[in-house]
Amino acid sequence: MLRLEPRAKPSRALSLLSPLIALAITVAVGVLLFALLGKDPLRALQMFFVEPVKNLPALSELSVKATPLLLIALGLALCFRANVWNIGAEGQFVLGAMAAGWVALQAGGDLAWLGRGIVVVILVAGVLGGMLWAAIVALLRDRFNANEILVSLMLVYVAILWLSYLVYGPWKDPKGYNFPQTVLFDAVTQIPRLAPKMRANVGSLIALACVAVVWIFMFRLYRGFALQVGGLAPLAARYAGFSSGGALWTALLVSGGLAGLAGALEVIGPLGQLTPHVPVGYGFAAIIVAFVGRLHPVGIVFAAILMSMFYIGGELAQSRMGLPKSLTGVFQGLLLFALLACDTLINYRVRLGAEKLAR
Amino acid sequence: MSEARLELSGIVKQYPTVRANDDVRLRVMPGQIHAVLGENGAGKSTLMKIIYGAVQPDAGTMRWNGEPVQVKSPAAARQLGISMVYQHFSLFETLTVAENVWLGLDRSMRLPQVAARIGEVAHSYGLDVDPGRPVHTLSVGEKQRVEIVRALLTDPQLLILDEPTSVLTPQAVEKLFVTLRRLADGGTSILYISHKLDEIRALCHHCTVLRGGRVTGEVDPSKETNASLSRLMIGAEPPALRQRASTQGAEVLTVKGLSLPRLDPYGVDLKDIAFSVHAGEIVGIAGVSGNGQQELMAVLSGEDPRAPVGSVTLEGRDIGRLPPKPRRRAGLHFVPEERLGRGAVPTLSLAQNTLLTRTSTLGPAGWIAPSRVRALAGRLIERFQVKAGGPDAAARSLSGGNLQKFIVGREIDAGPRLLIVAQPTWGVDVGAAALIRGELLALRDAGCALLVVSEELDELFEISDRLLVIARGRISPSVPIAQASIERIGEWMSGLFPGGVREAERAAA
Predict the structure, then answer these.
(1) Number of domains forming the structure of chain B
(2) Model's pTM, two decimal places?
(3) How confident is the model at residue B437 (pLDDT cuts 50, 70, 90)?
(4) What SS3 class is residue B235?
(5) CA nearest neighbour of A289 among A271, A301, A273
(6) Do B366 and A241 touch (CB under 8 A)?
């Protein structure tokens, strides 16, 4: 019989190893799954773990997927460390995309004088859009003690429906054969690309810069410290005089802003217009990314890359092997489950045999 | 010699880092009041949990009335006739006494029957409680009586009491002792866990002393002195504090006309509180816990910044509405009662924990320079003899005494004008307690004003220059320590002081 015995202190080695063990378990279950589906497991694994990093164009695609995940997960890590359970990053992402799209639509007209500078305005609009959506959550929690999990989640649906209303209605492209989409944005709004003929863009560099900024905020600034104390020990934060409201607002505004920035980068990067398909679940996947990355900015970089491999691998497995695309979701879920289970090992060790009884 | 009610031998319990019990033996006779004496961490609680079936020993035997038994769960223990009253009450505040007792019974009984039984038991042992009263209206002593009545309803042959007097006034302790003696006369064995030497000597027939998980003595406490018992308990005589000579300076903290309704529905309203603390003196506040100490501390520390204008002043400056940080800048530092989770963040390192109240190590814009933060923690560890794995050790890896030395040291090192300390040595080993009290006295001699809240009267008598008593949200006039007696302070703790709640009630009637 297996039994868990508490460790005297948390194992540092296992807190780093746990994501790797979880990945191994995910792969093992994946192999079993492919075999049961009658597909060659090796070839399927190749789709997930080799193809997405095979060459430069593949890496470029990987960066396009990883960038929004990274940005959103950074903000969520800050929230979760502050014990603020923002699970509505998807909605903040959509609001960022809408705000950015609205500015981008003015590019040829009122804002033509800005030239290429409009890209900056678009990104700022995206950040503000995401912040606005997160601010609603902060306000309701702060003023009325509303549960931020429910409020942020519900606002996701409000955001998605609002976007649908705009692209089916007032913002619809008049020459778009009645498809629910806006006009293609003016070329000046396009985010600069890193190399010709590849979709990798400056957004990835912005995201990496954000990693550094969030790291500094978390580990080198007193405000970041105060915010995390509020999450770890609310009474200690009160004793120290750290305002819980301040931590709530900071965490939500930062994570909303980062999710909004991701939305803006998405619409002026790979998408180039607004459609009902802007939300593809990055906001939810980023929750997994944040935890797999141990809520640490650097860990999140690796986790975002891994999660992007699942996205791309899922698509390749569908197109080349006829496997259902929902495998991506299965893999994401498996990874999170396995990780949560493996985290038990940080505080407990597994022992064989029943507990000894008195002789 | 008759057969032992309970006999343990060779009990061993190993936890990952510590051997909590090592070859422990214990023999309790019928009708005996048997003390188990030891410091915090000596293994008393583990031993009781083993007897009560909450923890299984790694080795050793247990005999119950001569029969070998294995107690696998508390329910099995109750079946045998073993009852336990824990130090922390497990009562539902919103239910009545009878309902609470009813919930804890293994046997099926109707509520009116339970109420009737409570009446009988209460009457025969002098434990007066009203079965119909909601628990939240009871005083702490009354709640403890409910716990004892609940334990007695199972007709136990052995009653285990874990630190039962830590929440009682001296008078309530006397009342409890009468009950316990009556129980023992009726043949019930009692295991009495405590670290209070006077009580053990006054009450118990026999005493088993534990130190570091091993039995270090089995004595008749009535034939021992406090000094000889404490030698067995800590292996040395308690270090004596050097004698006092305080030079009182200017008034530092002034509280007057402080009345404040409670925030928590089960809290206490503060009523017309007035007192002052001068530079170079230690003012002690005595009282049974739950009489407004927490509320008063929150008002003074700034965690509750609702004090009426002008009711709390520090060196002439109204600070009643300031949050904690500006109060600290004005020289008011505070050591809270809970170490882990309030005074320190358990999972963070000692270095990071300095940042809770010490911001002098920060650079511009709140930049944290790790080397300076660690240097401060290292200095505190050295100056206050904290046993820790260094500045990077997590707060929760320290023993209670060492963490308390660190937290008290962190506030003393800040050079406060006024230091407020709640329960400075609660749950702290004797060595650390002596060091902390010595440091507080040294700080007083250096001209700092100190306010100490404690439930341990001995401690307050040892270090205070003046004493106040808090009862039901009111505070007594102050008494110089030379004129204070345990009896008088004990009476005041139940509210019987000039201007106290009992007097106020009398005036209203």
Answers:
(1) 2
(2) 0.82
(3) very high
(4) coil
(5) A301
(6) no
